[in-house]
Amino acid sequence: MTQQAAATDARPGPAARYDIVIIGAGMAGCAVAQALALVDKDRRRRILVVDRHKDVSPRFAGEFIHPRGAQVLEDLGFYGALKAAGAVDVDGFTVRERADGRCVELPYADVPGQRSQGLAVHHKTLVRVMRQVVRQRPQVDLLEGWVIKDVIRGFGDRITGVVLTGPDDQDVRVQCDLLVGADGKASQVRKLIGLPDQRQTIGFTAGLELRDAAVPKATWGNIVLGAWGPVLIYPIQREKDGSTTYRVTLDLPAQLPAKGARLGEYLLETFVPYLPSELGEQLAAAIQRHKGPLEMAPTVNLPAPRATSPGVALVGDAAGCSHPITASGMTMGLRDAEVLGAQARRRADAPLHEPWLDDAAIRRYRAEHDRYVPTRQALADAIYEAFRGGNEGARAIQRALFDYWAASAESRTRSMALLSCAEGRPSVFLSEYLKTARHAIETSLVPRHARALPARDRLRQFTGAAMLASNKLGLVAQVMWAQVRPAWLPHRDASA
Length: 496
What we know:
Elements: H1 3-9, E1 16-23, H2 27-39, E2 47-51, E3 64-65, H3 67-75, H4 79-84, E4 88-90, E5 92-96, E6 103-107, E7 118-120, H5 123-135, E8 140-144, E9 147-153, E10 159-165, E11 171-181, H6 188-192, E12 200-211, E13 221-224, E14 231-238, E15 244-253, H7 261-270, H8 277-289, E16 295-301, E17 308-309, E18 312-314, H9 329-346, H10 359-388, H11 392-407, H12 409-419, H13 426-445, H14 447-450, H15 455-484
Parallel strand pairs: 1-2, 1-11, 2-8, 5-13, 11-18
Antiparallel strand pairs: 3-7, 4-7, 5-6, 9-10, 10-11, 12-15, 12-16, 13-14, 14-15, 17-18
């Protein structure tokens, strides 16, 4: 039996025990397994990764990774294999105000202290390659087609293991020192440990693929505003014939106005007219020739829940997610893996009778997680409100944002540092957001700025912009507290 087959077909015995059990073999779960295995140089530890799908999940999911995440992929040994499989280096973002409006370039290379490129890759390719790499680690067993049925509780309600169900519907009990929930937005681990489900479906994202899309920058993420919601186009696969496959994502409302075949008609009417002509023609053709249901995914907002519990750590989307407009979800999942790996490194020489990642290590993981995830969620929320332009206040913020970017290269660099996850301090987010809000208010009230705005609209814009800015202050206060809260201070969780 080959090493790959052995890893896939491995089955826990009746008294199986692992140091770490990871539920979910997507990007976050594979990254955690690899990070831990690389730390265990003496191969003293055992790691079990479990996924409900026998093969890569067919779902439409994240594909864009900022430089911060790309660096983690390289550090963990995934980058080379992904590039060989067709992944594309990406250089930043362009943001177009509307089809014939202003276009701003936000390059990664201008942000100091990080690599100059991110990575974009078809989700199925990403997960397939990462599983192949993880299978090569002798410490790791990978079970595909298995699900978590229940958790095992010990003294003090601590999680000490899991009950798994295999393809033959037979239950197997597995003991572990730490359970890692890497099973996404609808995390079963989160449900089984008793955390309330606070998911909110705020919309849907439709996905289509184009060959050699007519975008301003071929190796960039390209955002076009003006339609009901933002349109994002980015490369996901370098084909063997030299062409490039692009992903087009379309932001749709929570209450879909059309379904089935009529959804295509809705996209043609609602999005295509707002795109530059050549790109619009390409998208229209792709919609018209598409057979069967479009790739769709719910857009979920999950305020960062308690990221840990006795014997449990949540990573990736299981530990909180927001609107994908900032494309930061993948990078945040990789950062979770990096932090857990760092905590494991601190205890690499711990005696085998002690937990590898003990309670102190998990507290440190939670403290670090709480410092960067809420900032990402606040940023995604603010950017989406502005980019969608659903009311006059949001449109005022959007116009002010473009003015702010046009003012100097420094302003664009500061914004890109936030967008690319290089900057995570909530104080910086607050500063940048309030600068934009201030400009929006000035364009409503100050004569030298407000001349371009009809007088009847100024009060409405001022009111909308002020309300939009003030709505962020409470959220930012919470984020800033997460930044400065001492690691030893107990958390006050409503779910606790």
